[in-house]
Amino acid sequence: MKYKIAYLIILFTYLVKAQNNYYLGVEELFNLGIEHSTQLKASHIKNSISIEKEALTEIEQLPSISFTATNGYVGKASIYDKNFSFAEHPDIPNWKQNYGLELKQTIYQGGKIKNNIKSAYISRQISELSLEKDVSDIKLVLINNYLELFRLYKQKDVLLKNIEEAKKRLNNIKNLKKEGIVTNNDVLRSQIDVSNYELSLKETQDNIIIISQQLDIVLGIEEKNIIVPDTLFLEKKIFVENEDYYVQQGYEKYPELRISDYNIEKAKVDEKIAKSKYLPNLFLSAGNNLVRPLPNTSPVQDLYINSWGINLGLSYEISSWFDHRHTLNEAKYNINLQENLKEQTRENIRMKVKSAYIKNKEAMDRIEVLTKTIQQAKENYRITNNKYFNQLSILTDLLDASAVQLNAELQLTTAKANFIYTYYLLLQASGNL
């Protein structure tokens, strides 16, 4: 078994050498992630669509211009008497032409055009805030994977150190067995302990490769790169403000809450648009027509006639009053709904901030406790190790002391990663990420 494990470790070492180490800082992590994120590319496309929609609504203010041209062949006409007996073929032109140019300008439409422009503008603002929220969400996902990678590297270092210590302990136990002081059972149990550490190391190394490849794909770099995080990142000093500060920041900056404000404003604009449906439309039009042959003349004359005119029109849709009450009620209910959703968002901000703040404080407390625990675990292992080799304790006590020391070191790394992650969670919940 130990030879197989040794072979796997040698194979892994060879593969790592065949791959490239890519040293990645947090700033570059965010920049590459934002640049290559397919989700953000979709958000940018949606934002571009909202910009084009806003431009289209502004065009509605301009007059509409239409041009028509008709050119066709007129077949020979036949005239019949009352008994459908053929009478004659009148002499009429065989070609007809009609050219028209019309310009139409809306003067009043109950504020519909103005409110449509305002609604499109609000939709664009919502799209930009959604893009901002997506960037924040992407950063949080990236930092979570980055911290997991960091934790794995720390775990690898701890395991390598414990494997080295376990092998030294195994050699010392083998020497004791040669002297007849301990039984072969202690040797076997120590070998199993080394094998378990080596298996854990192999699993950790595989996880480093997996997460590195996932980040390679997301960041748009070569997939064979093994990402190495900033070694000083976990030791970075972070000052955490009080809980109320992050709640207030969330109320001012959190994208979803600002989106809620725009949704309320848009709902109010939609109500105005609904009201405009029951107001008259006033428009001005001007046109020119060139027609051949002369219409409504007998006999038909093969001549052109050109005419122009200016009209002031008023239209009113009477049937709109049938659904007047329901349409306006729907618009009002939508305003109430958006105001309710804003309150829900405010509650969610408070809950997210409070949860992240508590978890951050918990991780900080765990760091303090585990720092002391590691010192105690190391001292306990040193004492137990001396006792065992002086035949004052059994091997189980020594292995337990080693396991306690290992777990404390791994838990400290996890606590440091959690502290930083919950800090970024606070930033995200308060709209500062």
From TrEMBL:
Residues 149-176, 328-387 form a coiled coil. GO terms for molecular function: efflux transmembrane transporter activity; porin activity. The keyword Coiled coil applies. It is found in: Cell outer membrane. InterPro entries: OMP_efflux, TolC-like. One of its GO terms (cellular component) is cell outer membrane. Belongs to the outer membrane factor (OMF) (TC 1.B.17) family. Keywords: Cell outer membrane, Coiled coil, Membrane, Transmembrane, Transmembrane beta strand, Transport. This is Transporter. The keyword Transport applies.
